[in-house]
Design goal:
With 351 residues, the protein is an alpha/beta fold. 21% of the residues lie in helices and 21% in strands. The strands form three sheets. Strands 1, 2, 3, 4, 5, 6, 15, 16 and 17 form a nine-stranded mixed beta sheet that branches. Strands 7-14-8-9-10 form a five-stranded parallel beta sheet, covered by helices on one side. Strand 15 and strand 16 form a beta hairpin. The longest helix has 16 residues. The chain binds flavin-adenine dinucleotide. The site of flavin-adenine dinucleotide has 34 residues, from helix 1.
Amino acid sequence: MPAPLDVVVIGGGQAGLAAGYHLRRLGLDFAVLDAQPTPGGAWQHTWDSLHLFSPAAYSSLPGRLMPPQPGETYPDAAHVVAYLTDYEQRYELPVHRPVRVAGVHRDGELLHVETDSGSWRARAVISATGTWSRPFVPAVPGRTKFRGVQLHTVEYRSPVDLAGQTVIVVGGGNSGAQIAADLVPAAALTWVTPREPRYLADDIDGRALFDHATARRRALDEGRTDSGGVASLGDIVAVPPVREARDAGLLKAQPMFDRVTATGVAWADGTTAEADAIIWCTGFRPGLSHLAPLGLRGPRGHIPTTGTRALGEPRLHLLGYGDWTGPASATLIGVGRPAREAARQIADLLR
Ligand code: FAD
């Protein structure tokens, strides 16, 4: 077993790399353990047409601006993967892959990190495992009886795979709207949303979202009234393909159905729709099962934190995941600040 490190970072996506950047600056001894064989975190697995909702300069990790992608205002996922690959090389971040962490255990003064390829010990742990590994599908009656294809956002790749088919897309967030827009030219589409779609104003993209998150963080820091997270502005960024499909009248949302049948879906008023495929764009949960041995789980599957630090275990920080670990911490530009704070707090703790 290797000698104990100051810090083990679990997860080598953008959040884990931002943590590594700040740990390195503070001179701490650390390793990043990532389950993927190659760099890029979840960006390696998104659908083909996905583009960021912010320009490159507003999608950067600490220390290095994302270069613009030639010909694109909003970079695509492959560009993000290239940027993250370059980032970890440039800062010589010690990322070990593929290494999947099975469990984190208390071991006296240390934390013991059990993996599929041996054990690590550290004085502190940063968990940055994201949400992509835990797709969420609601328990709609009849779902298991459907004889067609069911996909989650994580499994959708391209409209080509569903060309000519009748497809129901479920979900009123960015993934639902973007995948529905992606399918418009190829499939007979029904888009179903739990409530009327809430588009952000057309001139709002990730830059404005980040400004809003920053203003909110400042208000919270100063003890002023919480204006609400970015969700208070709307659910869907009107990125160009979504805007075009919506303005052409091709993105008409239906209310949520009551149940799934063998051949489609049915609403309470007796209306039905047949489908070859249902795509569930219904969100994610944080991938935290490796932390179960610490017994820290709180309501809604989250681990209660103050900032990024786990309330029940001061040697553990959580990074990314969602606003509950810091405003905008699950975005490229937003993760830098909580990463810096987590690294700083760990350095203080170990001193
Ligand atoms: P991930 O990228 O998921 O990285 C986590 C890493 O941890 C992965 O490599 C994973 O394999 C690894 N891992 C998981 N479990 C273990 C384990 N037990 N042991 C070891 N390793 C493990 N953000 C923006 O800033 N701009 C956007 O335009 C934008 N668009 C988005 C569009 C979609 C559809 C989605 C879903 C998200 C979008 N986001 C966007 C949000 C966010 O930037 C991404 O979700 C991002 O991938 C989160 O980074 P992360 O490092 O927290 O997690």
